[in-house]
């Protein structure tokens, strides 16, 4: 037995003959190597996502640059809109190719390039306003590339990793990436506390860029057998097919609505950060602690969620939504009870619980759609869902008006109702 096969069996606890009914027979030979490469690739990208995050690190950097508040508030919507809306337009083109892996590789290099250019601009330009807008524009390009890679990744995963092991593979990507991010967060906490230099942020961009580039080389080594090219369609034809799927497949339609409601979990994070700043009267850098909390949540939960996703991704959706509701109720204590004894450290469980919930939500929706979609139509199923979620994100960008006009309490109750509706609707979905 090779070291690769041994490591694969250690991760999956698969000591029996491999079961490859859900992938082509000629892919079964490469399964251990593909599984391990996928884990390593994802570990690097998840680490990079922790270093440069539209929900946390980028707002911190743009705030350092003195960017206007409206620009900072648009970071997460731009990331989601850029990554989700174009997918319907490219899925038909991807289907025309016998191999879909090169699309992810090209997207990964593009994402690394965008981060590298951001690092160079931040290092050598003095006009902070120009740098801020340039970084946001590069984020849009980064996100479009991410959308192309997402369609390719799900299709390649469906071809190279069998059902029953996809959730574990996704969870190990998150776990190992979280471990690397935990080291980075710990460094910020213990060695760079109080550091507020542009060179620190230049380093974050540069390291994240290199991680994406290395991840692209790793993904290029995955052995993907040529697949079916039937059904290659123009974007207009793809839209028509997508509309047909929504009309005839009620479970798929309800999944998209459920997934949209599940977005309340990541949308909560910026408001939790706002409340954390209100709770804490101290004026120092919490960035390291927040990265550590998010990483711990990912590390602790991902192995458990991965196995649960392979057994029942629907059950994992409900558990994730329920945990997020718990984090909201905990946060409301800090809203309604203004006490001098309630500080940032008491608030940390809110971020941890919601981080655990978000880890489960991501795994559940990814595993469900990969397992649910027919192989030949998988790119269309994925891209239609992501495009519609992108449209929903445009609406979600206005959700912050609730907090602005009515306060954080009403914002939290609004998201709580969305999550209750998510759990309720999930019972209408077909089991896979």
Describe the structure concisely.
The chain has about 425 residues and is mainly α. The chain has 20 helices and no strands. The protein has 2 domains: about 190 residues, MFS general substrate transporter like domains (Growth Hormone, Chain: A, Up-down Bundle), CATH 1.20.1250.20; about 200 residues, Growth Hormone, Chain: A (Up-down Bundle).
Describe this structure in words.
The two termini are 33 Å apart. This protein has helices spanning 3-12, 25-28, 31-51, 57-64, 69-73, 75-84, 87-95, 101-124, 128-160, 166-190, 198-220, 235-248, 250-262, 264-279, 287-311, 313-336, 344-372, 378-396, 400-406, 408-426. By secondary structure, it is an all-alpha fold. The longest helix is centred in the middle third of the chain and has 33 residues, at 128-160. It is built from 20 helices and no strands. Helix content is 78%, strand content 0%. The protein has 2 domains: 31-224, Growth Hormone, Chain: A (Up-down Bundle), CATH 1.20.1250; 234-431, MFS general substrate transporter like domains (Growth Hormone, Chain: A, Up-down Bundle), CATH 1.20.1250. The model is unreliable at 5-13, 15-20 and 25-29 (pLDDT under 50).
- pLDDT below 50 for ≥5 consecutive residues: which ranges? 5-13, 15-20, 25-29
What is the global morphology? globular
Q: Which class best fits the helix and strand makeup?
A: mainly alpha
CATH architecture call of the largest domain: Up-down Bundle
First-last Cα distance? 33 Å
The helix count comes to 20
User: How many structural units, i.e. domains?
Assistant: 2
Q: Report strand %.
A: under 5%
How many β-strand stretches? 0
Q: Give the helix proportion (percent range).
A: over 70%
The radius of gyration over CA amounts to 21 Å
CATH class of the largest domain: Mainly Alpha
Please provide the ordered H/E string of secondary-structure elements.
Answer: HHHHHHHHHHHHHHHHHHHH
What is the name of the CATH topology of the largest domain?
A: Growth Hormone, Chain: A
> Could you describe the largest sheet, including whether it forms a barrel?
none
Q: Mean pLDDT score, rounded? A: 79
The CATH H-level homologous superfamily of the largest domain = MFS general substrate transporter like domains
Protein name: Permease, MFS superfamily protein
InterPro entries: MFS, MFS_dom, MFS_trans_sf, Sugar_transport-like
Domain Major facilitator superfamily (MFS) profile: 204-432
Transmembrane segments: 60-78, 103-125, 131-153, 174-193, 199-219, 256-274, 286-305, 317-337, 343-361, 381-402, 408-429
């Amino acid at each position: 037995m090779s070291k690769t096969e041994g490591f694969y069996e250690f991760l999956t606890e698969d000591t029996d003959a491999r079961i490859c009914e859900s992938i082509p027979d000629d892919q079964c030979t490469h399964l251990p190597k593909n599984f391990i490469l996928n884990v390593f690739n994802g570990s690097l990208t998840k680490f990079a996502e922790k270093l440069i995050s539209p929900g946390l690190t980028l707002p911190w950097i743009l705030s350092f640059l003195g960017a206007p508040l409206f620009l900072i508030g648009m970071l997460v919507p731009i990331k989601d809109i850029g990554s989700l809306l174009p997918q319907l337009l490219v899925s038909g083109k991807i289907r025309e190719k016998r191999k879909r892996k090169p699309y992810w590789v090209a997207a990964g290099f593009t994402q690394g390039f965008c981060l590298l250019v951001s690092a160079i601009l931040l290092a050598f330009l003095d006009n902070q306003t120009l740098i801020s807008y340039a970084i946001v524009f590069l984020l849009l390009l980064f996100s479009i590339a991410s959308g192309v890679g997402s369609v390719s990744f799900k299709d390649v995963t469906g071809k190279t990793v069998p059902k029953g092991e996809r959730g574990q593979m996704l969870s190990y990507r998150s776990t190992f990436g979280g471990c690397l991010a935990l080291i980075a967060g710990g460094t910020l906490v213990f060695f760079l506390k109080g550091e507020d230099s542009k060179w620190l942020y230049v380093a974050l961009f540069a390291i994240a860029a290199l991680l994406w580039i290395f991840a692209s080389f790793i993904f290029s080594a995955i052995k993907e057998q040529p697949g079916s090219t039937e059904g290659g369609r123009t974007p207009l034809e793809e839209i028509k097919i997508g509309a047909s799927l929504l009309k005839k497949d009620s479970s798929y339609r309800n999944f998209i609505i459920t997934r949209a409601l599940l977005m309340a979990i990541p949308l909560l994070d910026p408001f939790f950060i706002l409340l954390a700043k209100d709770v804490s009267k101290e004026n120092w850098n919490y960035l390291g602690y927040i990265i550590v909390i998010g990483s711990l949540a990912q590390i602790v939960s991902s192995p458990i969620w991965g196995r649960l996703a392979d057994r029942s991704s629907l059950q994992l959706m409900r558990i994730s939504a329920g945990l997020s509701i718990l984090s909201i109720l905990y946060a409301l204590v800090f809203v309604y009870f203004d006490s001098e004894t309630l500080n940032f450290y008491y608030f940390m469980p809110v971020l941890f619980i919601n981080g655990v919930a978000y880890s489960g939500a991501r795994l559940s929706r990814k595993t469900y759609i990969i397992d649910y979609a027919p192989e030949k139509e998988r790119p269309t199923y994925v891209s239609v869902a992501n495009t519609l979620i992108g449209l929903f994100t445009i609406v979600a960008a206005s959700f912050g008006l609730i907090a602005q006009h009515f306060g954080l309490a009403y914002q939290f109750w609004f998201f709580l109702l969305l999550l209750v509706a998510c759990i309720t609707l999930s019972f209408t979905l077909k089991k896979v």
